[in-house]
Amino acid sequence: WLLLGALFTPTHNRFHKQIKGILARNAYTLSNGTLKEIKYTKCNYSKPFRVCREAIDAFMASDSHFNCIAIKTDHTFDLNLYGNPSEPAKVKKERAYRSLAEELLRRNLPHMTSARLFLDKMTRCEPKLFLEILKQKFSTPGQGFSTGLQHAKISHIQDVVSGAEGYELMGVCDLLQGCVLNNLLPIQVSIGTSHGSSHKNKIREYLIQRLGVKDLLPEPWAEIQGNSLA
Q: Using one digit for the tens of pLDDT, what is the confidence trace for 154-195?
């Protein structure tokens, strides 16, 4: 599976302060005293599970929403849709990633202008080209997706290290995306399996419970309303 997720936070400062408060209150810190990053992969024992659960509660109480595109990359995924058959697969994969990212942003920005976009450091494609294309399409007033607008859809685009101080909300995005992946590929817990696997399943189940849906698979996904998922 290829997953692209984005967290949209209209009231950024308030939500960011809440997440930092959760991390501080639970003493979820590194040895040097800085706050740890919320990550789905680290939800493998009781303390990070508690932090992740509180982060989900804060997300549900906020005016934020999360959107995710999930693409199954098996034999049904036709890379030739993203380039010529003669082009290397790597080039077409990068183009597919960029196209999907553009679609993810486009569908969530109809009522927004002058947004600020922070991207986790990229490994799937060349960062400089990726950022340049996004800026051309979203950050140039009167052009691309900002055609006919006085202000650009996105005023600032930057790639950052998600674990750095000030970008704690990126951990919420990682957690929500991890829960979607967990539902697509549930971890089979058996005798001898580490408790970490159980915690990952449980945090996905907790998110589903808070949303009031049966799962995070395609059918109920489009039915979720309000400030949750889309």
A: 999 999 999 899 999 999 999 999 999 999 998 887 665 556
Which two structure tokens, joined as six digits, stand for 49?
A: 């599970």
Q: Alpha carbon 183 to chain centroid distance?
A: 15
Is-contact 229 75, C-beta < 8 A?
no
**How many CB atoms are closer than 10 A to CB 160?**
13
What are 146-154's contacts with CB under 8 Å, separation 24+? 146/113, 149/113, 151/113, 151/114, 152/113, 152/114, 153/105, 153/109, 153/112, 153/113, 153/115, 154/105, 154/109, 154/114, 154/115, 154/116, 154/117
Dist CA 141 CA 148 (whole Å): 8
Mean pLDDT of the residues in the chain: 89
The residue ranking higher by pLDDT, 149 or 195, is 149
Joined together, the tokens standing for residue 175 give 């957690």
Q: Buried b / exposed e across 183-198, counting CB within 10 Å, b at 16+?
A: beeeeebeeeeeebbe
Which residues share a beta bridge with 7? 66
- Classify the C-alpha dihedral 158-172-216-212 as positive or negative: negative
**Backbone angles phi and psi of 68, in degrees to 5:** -140, 140
Give the per-residue pLDDT at 186: 86
Instruction: Determine the length of the chain.
Output: 230
Asked if the model's pLDDT at residue 97 lies above 70, the reply is: yes
